[in-house]
Design a protein that fits this description.
By secondary structure, the protein is mainly beta. About 5% of the residues lie in helices and about 40% in strands. The strands form 11 sheets. The chain has a 4-stranded antiparallel beta sheet. It has a 4-stranded antiparallel beta sheet with strand order 5-6-7-8, covered by helices on one side.
Amino acid sequence: MATSSSPYSAMSPDDRLLAACSGDDGPLVLRDISTGRDLPRRWPRALDQAFCTAQTATFTPDGRALAVPVEGGIRTWDMRTGEERPEADLPGAPEPSLDFSDDGTTAVALGNQEVVLWRVADPGTPLLRHPIGEGTAREVRLDTEAGVIRVRTSARVVRTLGIADVLTDRHRQRPLAGARFSPDGRSLATAERRGGTTVVRLRDAHDGTLLRSLPGRSCEGCPDPVLTFSPDGGTLAHTTGTERGTTVHQWSVRHGRAKARHTVASWVEDLVLPGGGGPPVIAGTKPGRQENDNRKVEVWRIDGRTDGHIDGRTDGRTDGRTDGRTDKRLLSRGSLGSPVLAPDGRALLTLDGRMTDLRTGRSTPALRGEDSLITGAFSPDRRFLAVCDDNGRLTLWNGPGTRLLAVLSAGGPGEHRPASALSFSADGRHLAASTPDGSVRVWETGTPGLPGAEYPGADGAVLALGFAGDELLIATAHGAVRGLPLSGERAAGIACRRAGGGLTRGQWRTYLPNTPYRPTC
């Protein structure tokens, strides 16, 4: 039976069961409080060792299982059958603090300098990972009804994290392969794997609601679709790969119908739709494997009629005739490195540091001093160019890439934290960049020397970033779209609503006794 010398004990939520150790080394005893009897043992000795050496443990809300924080994660055993449930992996956490939602479907824990939220049925796919300061968090509580996580950082301070969006049913079990927001912040295009193919879908940018599945499917083993919108957001262009090339589809977002379809003998790596209804410009390489030394980037402007007649159909299929004519004008061939097209289709940056004027074909060195670049983006008006290398060094240049404006993130050897997504706002005033842990930083391009505003991650690596007015839009592989305020006024309003109002005069005297009182909300 359990004794007063037990190092730790845990009571079930209904006060019917008591779990305790019969001594410092166990074994674990489970007692029915109503009868005073110990229940038959069905659990393995691994639970004895975990429970009797733990600093804390807790029953699941239904009282059927016992969750024990261990070094590097949470282990849970069903006390009726003795079977161990899937472990929640929390690398680097000594013994995480843990809490469950009232219905037992969701759990939260303090990991190694982070808060981690997951579905109990799928602990291997966290809903949220939110970084916290080292040594600051002491206790965590989950309130799904209010849509918040509360983290106690001291005797007087409790931080709250809003998780209402994360808890929606829109959290995806199948990760997205790609995503792209429209410049106006109204639409979101997503690439989603289905069996051996990849399909493209159009969604509402504010909540991720599916609007329409678009025509075309990429073949198994072909490159993932490239997604882009026209500057006004009215047209979406996307690619579907075949073994011999790529089909470029154009879809009218406003009218909900296919506009054109063209096939090229290239694997497309970048695609733009210039303003004013101009034809698509694509950049890519010949299909099949190529040695790096022989890899050449080709740039084409696609014009003329579609490959087949669409005749206003909304399903994107043709009527079977193929007498339409497509003009494919080769603008450039050469250059090594991955291509980044300017939004107006008039310039090409390759990440080996060459800038090509596609009107004249003239290629010149750019981005002097940069090396090992892996991603880049132009602002919509081509005033700015942002690039990132494989060590996480993020820099801002003038549009031609001839003058360095600022080093936004220094990075460094061994850090390996390159930006997984880059995006400028439609007016070019803001630049957003993400890191592999899902955090996002936003800079004002007019004052790039100032530190950017940082937004913690919530669901793994970011696939796409966008802007809608004073709101930052974030799309991840598993989660619904998140919208975060960019203006201080909106952020303050959200904080006031979450806190239930500002400080009273009495609270002000307690926390800020030497500062004159003023309303905070």
